[in-house]
Design a protein that fits this description.
single chain, mainly alpha, Four Helix Bundle (Hemerythrin (Met), subunit A), 0% strand, elongated
Length: 131
């Protein structure tokens, strides 16, 4: 599961970088802690970071369960697609929030595949264990 571990660390690193960019935007646009609103450009960075947090709570367990029950190579590949999608989402959201659709789709689709695929694999394995 080394590849799944690597993708997990890349996802954490991506999230950490986005947090740093929020901090930079806070200083650049004069939004003092603990405020989370103010300048629109700061709010875009804040929303990108927060939305990524919301996605990680589903992505990480799905990645690991899919990797365990289906295969680490498939999970790692889908995980890389997710990371590319999150990067596209971040860039497009900061430029123009209305243009975030493609990045959203590219990060949501692999997550959905891993959730459904993992669930199906768990059910198949459970049913096989009943025999």
């Amino acid at each position: 599961m080394e590849l799944v571990s690597a993708v997990t660390l890349l996802a954490i690193f991506q999230f950490w970088i986005l947090g740093g960019l929020v901090g930079r935007a806070r200083g650049k646009y004069g939004v003092k802690a603990p405020q989370t609103t103010g300048d629109e450009h700061f709010e875009r960075w804040f929303r990108v970071h927060y939305n990524t947090l919301e996605k990680l709570i589903v992505f990480l367990p799905a990645l690991w369960l899919f990797g365990y029950y289906v295969g680490q190579y498939y999970a790692a590949a889908l995980g890389l697609v997710y990371l590319i999608g999150r990067l596209m989402y971040a860039i497009s959201y900061v430029r123009d929030p209305g243009s975030r659709g493609l990045g959203t789709l590219i990060s949501e689709l692999p997550t959905l595949i891993m959730v459904l695929g993992g669930l199906i694999a768990v059910i198949i394995q459970w049913l096989a264990s009943l025999n």
